[in-house]
Amino acid sequence: MRGWLKTTIGLVVLSGVLVGADRIAVGVAEDEAADQILRSGRMSQKPEVSIEGFPFLTQVVSRKLDDVRISSDGLTVGEGKDKVALHGFRAELSGVEVSGNMSSATVDRGTGSGLISYADLSRLMPPASELVPNAGRLSLGGNTRLSLSYGGPGKVKASLGPFPVGEAAVRSEGNTVTVDGFRLSAMATLLAGVADQSLDPVSFTLAALPAGLNLSSVTPQEDGLRLAFDGKGVKLIG
User: Fold this and answer.
1) Distance between CA 129 and CA 232 in Å, rounded?
2) CA-CA distance, 35 to 42, in Å (whole number)?
């Protein structure tokens, strides 16, 4: 009886040691992966990385991680003057093949999401002088831009200074977002002396998206524009 008890206790202790070693190893790997993602330029700041699945060490032997989660808040997307904040970024990456020293990593499939506020979205829109002929007659500053807010499912609404512009549909193609359908109010049209109240579609491209993913869809929400991302065969590190 005592021999059986000693064996059982020994196995429990050994299991605890192995589990502890596994958790230490995964913690070190997560921190190293976050550093490498930042150094690779795939994200504008160091993310939180969580490597799911147990045991981790068997995944290391195969050099393929089943499930990796990445998160970060306050990332920037875009380039040059078109950089804006991406809030609440979350990504799930499956089939992550890594090198022995974590210097390279390729993702079989990845999905993610994040949010751009309407205030930041407005910064990506052209100034009034480019949108409306004779915009100077509206007594707007040269850098005045559309003020955007939620306009209902699939739409945003806008104003140009004190003048309402109505609603427009939002769609994406590749990494390019297009806002189409704005019409100036009758008063703004009269003051500007333009015959057509409609505005040309406005498009902008979001470059340098996080974790090497691509834009798959955009959805207007009350708190901003929700972006969905995906990718296959994505180069995450290296």
Assistant:
1) 41
2) 11
Question: 6 exposed, middle or buried (CB, 10 Å; 0-12, 13-18, 19+)?
Answer: exposed
Greatest pairwise CA separation for the chain in angstroms? 99
For 158-217, the pLDDT digits (tens) are 887 787 888 899 999 999 999 998 877 776 666 566 666 777 888 888 888 898 899 999
The yes-or-no verdict on residue 125 having pLDDT over 70 is yes
Judged on CB neighbours under 10 Å (0-12, 13-18, 19+), 80 is: exposed
3-state percent breakdown (helix, strand, coil) of the chain, nearest 5: 30, 40, 30
What's the CA gap between 23 and 53, in Å, rounded? 11
| Structure token pair of residue 202 | 């406005």
Residue 147 CA to residue 201 CA, distance in Å, equals 16
User: pLDDT of 42-68, one tens digit each?
Assistant: 888 999 998 887 776 677 667 788 889
Enter the DSSP assignment of 198: B
Compute the distance between CA of residue 102 and CA of residue 30 in angstroms, rounded to an integer. 10
208 secondary structure, DSSP code: S
75, 85 contact by CB (below 8 A): yes
- Count CB atoms within 10 A of the CB of residue 4: 8
For residue 31, the SS3 value is: helix
Helical segments of 86-170, H only? 118-123, 128-131
Question: What are the CA-CA distances from residue 45 to residues 24, 39, 103, 113, 134 (Å)?
Answer: 24, 9, 18, 16, 42
Tokens of 62: 């195969």
